[in-house]
Amino acid sequence: MNDTIESDRPNDAGVTQRILVVHSVLIALTALIPLPLADEAAKRHLRRRMVRQLAEVHRLKLWTDEIHALADESRATTAAGILRGALLLPVRFIVRKVFLLLTSSKMLSEASKHYHHGWLLNCSFEQRWCAPSGRHDARELRRAVDAVMKDVPIASSPITTALKAGLDQSRQGLQRLVRYLSDQLANMREGDDSVLRQVVERTESAEEEDLGGIVERIQNAMNDVPAEHFHQLKASLAESLGETIKETRDHA
Which pairs from 30-33 meet CB under 8 Å and 24+ separation? Predict the structure, then answer.
């Protein structure tokens, strides 16, 4: 079956910025869901959803396996995440209210890592480097993105600083979102993507007051990220792919 994407979304920097921020925050929050299998499944679903929506912005048609190649983490990384989740499960129920404080650095790192990853993919879509618009297939592009990510100092990145500024102002909203996600996914069966889709959609609508406020604060903080940071990311990706950068309207 040809599971491709074609959308009427406007090719607008504000649209891609919101996709990146929303998904980076939600992916980071999955680590705080006190359900080992549910948190990894939710993370995988959100990574794929981010890639799909970014492709839609640029009217890029991608097969399902191409989306998975661009989005999914390695099996070893996923297995390690499930193991950590299982080990932390009893602790999570006991310290649920303070878990954000105990894992804030980890959550921030996760959010920044996924923002960078999504930004690099969006850059490749915008530059028409990804097949079928460009000459690099999904696996080749993924290898290039991973190579660039290895050299990104996440801890000292200005994107991490911006995320921290926005998240530090949103602790109560984050706690409510974690509680909401946990409650909604409590009875989810492994592999039930329909439940995940419904939960994510409800998170963006029913919880708009919390998520919307968080996203707005982060987007405002992103205005302070030096343009040079994005230029360097784009240059590194172009070099890894052997491509030439085309002039575009905006870094986002």
Answer: 30/181, 31/103, 31/106, 31/107, 31/110, 32/92, 32/99, 32/100, 32/103, 32/107, 32/178, 32/182, 33/178, 33/181, 33/182, 33/185
Measure the N-to-C terminal CA separation of the chain; round to a whole number of Å. 32
Report pLDDT for 6: 42
**Cα separations in angstroms, 106 against 87, 111, 160, 163:** 16, 9, 11, 13
82 has a pLDDT exceeding 50? no
- Residue count of the chain: 252
Structure-token match 């706690």, residue found: 175
Helix (H, G, I), strand (E, B) or coil at 171: helix
Q: Are 159 and 24 in contact (CB under 8 A)?
A: no
- Phi first, then psi: what are they for 222, rounded to 5°? -65, -20
Lowest mean pLDDT among 4-13, 138-147, 148-157: 4-13
Q: What Rg do the C-alpha atoms of the chain give, in angstroms?
A: 18
- Rounded to 10 deg, the angle between the 158-168 and 208-222 helix axes is 140
Residue 246 pLDDT level (bands cut at 50, 70, 90): confident
Q: Which of 65, 47, 70 is nearest to 1 (CA)?
A: 65
Residue bearing tokens 């969006």: 122
Residue 206 CA: distances (Å) to CA of 3, 34, 103: 28, 21, 26
What phi-psi label fits residue 6: left (phi over 0), alpha (psi between -120 and 50 degrees) or beta? Answer: beta
